[in-house]
Amino acid sequence: MLDPELLTWLTGKLNFESLEDLLKAAKEKFPDTDIVPTLLLAGRTGAGKSSLINALACRTIMPVGVLPTTQKPTAFELEGKGVPLRVLDLPGVGEAGKHGERLQSVLDQADQAHLLLLAIPCPERSLDYETQLLAAVAKHFASRTPLPILTAGTKIDLAAPVRDWQPATLNLAAPSTEKEKHIAEWLSYVGRVLPEAGAITACASGQSCDDFANQYGLDALRKRIFDALPDAARTYFARATHDLALLNQRAENIVRLFSSLSSAAAAQPIPAIPDSALIMPIQVAMLIRLTSLHGKSLNADLAGKLLGPLMARVAGRYAFEQVTKWIPGIGSVVGAAVAAAMTYALGMGYHSLLCQGSWNFDAQALREEVLKWWEKIQKDL
Ligand SMILES: Nc1nc2c(ncn2[C@@H]2O[C@H](COP(=O)(O)OP(=O)(O)OP(=O)(O)O)[C@@H](O)[C@H]2O)c(=O)[nH]1
Ligand SMILES: [Mg+2]
Q: Looking at ligand 1, which atom is closest to the CA of residue 63?
């Protein structure tokens, strides 16, 4: 069922002034949630990954424990500076009997991630797991744009002497106490052994998410993560556009989402409004999202070019309705199943054209591609 608020929005968009208006409204209505950046949190078991997430989010999201705790990749969203971030907490590598499997799980998830955060627990000096993990990630991305990596040195409160922990006055820039010297020495040791880990942000997560008195370095880490995101999103995009399987999967998700919305919209009995007009804003939103998946922005010029010369003369609405007329034998009353199939054919046809890498196609090329998908769906049915 279509939610009533969306229905009101759709019927309100039937008489938009210009195509720009519709594009703008559709962008606002359907924000690009599938490009929420994803941070992959990896490290050895017990490194304090889940504790770090709870501390960063200021709430208890993940269970933490002395024994291997996180058993499967778990995703959730964080907000920072108004920017949403999806974080994926992974089971730690190195768990007895599961090392290879865990390492593989990092690589499996890495393709979908924008950024990798590696947690290394202080005062650990045997860094074999981390070395293997970084080598596996580097190999995985060897022939592609690499995955950006940030490193957190966790549990720095455990550097000797353990009892001396005063995070409020800790000064790692000019270490003078025994504790500060141990932490600084450990950080530079890790930097020497794992140069590919880059700069290391020293952190302590406290005993619980609200143990503020014992936490350290979380603001600095948050800042580093959110500062790295724009670049990370860019490299992700560079990688994603060269990884056809990934791109297809993301496109298909988008197309399925909007196809089901179209079907729900067409199932609404609204007298005097053609179904094709009702699903049009949904299809527009889908085209916007698919275009941005390919790193471009769908503006009125491009939409006009794609949807036919009619655009130059009449209001955008008619041009989009035109799309439904491309498919022979369909009138203005399309019904739920046909609306879904039509939106699917339009979305997949559009994505196929974009995959060919050329933006110099026109309404005719798009129409042919849409018809191909339409026929394919008919056969599959
Ligand atoms: N002293 C101290 N202990 C911590 C800190 N962070 C985590 N711990 C403890 O370390 C243990 C492991 O923490 P988790 O957050 O579960 O570690 P994890 O990396 O998620 O472990 P897996 O899920 O098994 O991979 C728990 O007992 C935590 O309480 C910290 O900053 N300081
Ligand atoms: Mg965990």
A: 16
**pLDDT for residue 320:** 54
Q: Assess whether 62 and 14 both reside in one domain.
A: no
Verify that 154 and 275 share a domain, yes or no.
Answer: no
| Residues 25 and 41 grouped into a single domain | no
- Residues near ion ligand 2 (CB < 5 Å) are 49-50, 69-70
For the whole prediction, is pTM greater than 0.70?
no
Output 84 or 183, whichever has higher pLDDT.
183
Binding pocket residue ranges, ligand 1, CB within 6 Å: 43, 45-51, 64-66, 68-70, 91-92, 154-155, 157-158, 204-205
CATH of the domain at 44: 3.40.50.300
**pLDDT at 240 > cutoff 70:** no
Does residue 376 share a domain with residue 303?
yes
**Domains of the chain: total:** 2
In degrees, to the nearest 5, what angle opens at C-alpha 347 toward C-alphas 345 and 348?
65
DSSP string, 168-203: GG--SSS--SHHHHHHHHHHHHHHHH-GGG-SEEE-
Is residue 225 a contact partner of residue 115, using CB atoms and an 8 Å limit?
yes
Q: Which domain holds residue 71?
A: 36-240
CA 204 to centroid of ligand 1, rounded, Å? 10
Hey, is 154 helix, strand or coil? strand
Residue 62 and residue 43: Cα distance in Å, rounded?
15
- The residue contributing the CA closest to ligand 1 atom 13 is 48
Say how far apart CA 304 and CA 363 lie, in whole Å.
9
